[in-house]
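Everyone, study these two lines:
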Amino acid sequence: MVLLKTSQVPRPILIVGNTGTGKIEKAMKLLSNNPIVQYANEYDIEDNYSIPRSRGILIEEIHYKAKIELIVMTILQYKGQIVLTSLNQKDVPKKIFNMCKLTRAGKAK
């Protein structure tokens, strides 16, 4: 039996940390110079296949009234890097949390 090697799709990264810990700066380092930036409660991207892989998507404040179905659809369809941010881990919807790699932000300054 021969297993087909699938193309490497980067796993979404969830950055968790309080205000002032550098979540956004850390997220921007992981993405291109011009990523798509949206808040989770205002998320409206439906055509994920038209976004170039090299661009990347940053979804902020995933803990606050996230549009879960659209975000999950993006995670499943988009082949580029996706980074999500949240104030705390426990308020992230489980459906989204289980699909992401967790990273913690630094100490508050």
Summary: Residues 68-77 form the longest helix (10 residues). Helices lie at 23-30, 68-77, 94-97.
